[in-house]
Amino acid sequence: MATLSTLAFAILPLLIALDPAAAVSVYLSLTRRLGGRERLIVLRDTIITALVLGFAFMFLGALIFRALGIDENDFKIGGGLILLVLSLSDLVGSDRAERTMSTHVGIVPLGTPMIIGPAVLASLTILQNQHGNLLAGTAFLITISLLAAALAAGGLIARLMGEGGLAAMSKIVSILLAAFAVHLIRAGVTAIITS
After folding, report:
1. Does residue 47 contact residue 140 with C-beta atoms inside 8 Å?
2. What is the dihedral of CA 14, 15, 16, 17, to 10 degrees?
3. Distance between CA atoms of 19 and 15, rounded to whole angstroms?
4. What is the rounded distance in angstroms from the CA atom of residue 124 to the CA atom of residue 115?
5. What sign results for the dihedral spanned by CA atoms 82, 110, 18, 126?
6. pLDDT tens digit string along 45-90?
7. Buried b (16+ CB within 10 A) or exposed e, 9-19
8. 54, 69, 76, 82: which has the fewest C-beta neighbours closer than 10 Å?
């Protein structure tokens, strides 16, 4: 019983860090012009990317960061810049640019840095230190499964909202994504300056 409650408490910070509502909104806005089969390919790429990066970071993250001389703040700035460029291209880009970008959106920006970004990596590190690899890995796997279910329901949400609703939501999400990107960059720069 204690293990189940510990697992539940481990899942909670990961869910908050993943922010499934934001992920679904971005997923819908980036795939609104894709058919059902293409949307499933994006979903598959998103989940595989998230799982591979999350588990790779759990076991190799500290070693890779140390070898490259980078830290969490560098990751925040890099991830923020990627999100900022993608959000601005969606806000001011043409439909042609959106279609070109949509072929790999499951990997970037959805798989990373939207889903597997600094918040999730920091949460995984804390969970590993507090509870060990087994519980942290199990919590991560359950959280990604819940996210996959939410994204899979995206097609139904897209049909309910229609083309106009998705287009409007896409622009709103792009503005929020740009703001989140600036927040990541600012947090990384501030931490570097103050340290």
Report:
1. no
2. 50
3. 6
4. 13
5. negative
6. 999 999 999 999 998 877 887 888 888 788 778 878 877 887 787 7
7. ebbebbeebbb
8. 69
pTM over 0.70: yes
Q: 3-class SS at 50?
A: helix
Neighbours of 175 (CB within 10 A): 14
- 8 A C-beta contact, residue 105 and residue 30: yes
Go through the chain and tell me how many residues it has.
Answer: 195
Query: To which H or E segment does residue 132 belong?
Result: none
pLDDT digits (tens, 9 = 90+) for 94-150: 554 444 445 588 998 899 888 998 778 878 877 887 889 999 999 999 999 999 999
**Tokens 């012009």 belong to which residue?**
33
Q: Check if the beta carbon of residue 145 is closer than 8 Å to that of residue 51.
A: no
**In this predicted model, what pLDDT tens digit does every residue of 168-183 receive, in sequence order?**
777 787 787 788 788 8
Specify the 3-state DSSP secondary structure of 31: coil
Which bin fits 129, alpha (ψ -120 to 50), beta or left (φ > 0)? alpha
Query: Which tokens hold the place of 23?
Result: 């992920």
Q: At what angle do helices 154-194 and 133-152 cross, to 10 degrees?
A: 130
- Is the separation of the CB atoms in 20 and 150 below 8 Å? yes
Burial of 35 (0-12, 13-18, 19+ CB in 10 A): exposed
- Distance (Å, whole) CA 115 – CA 140: 12
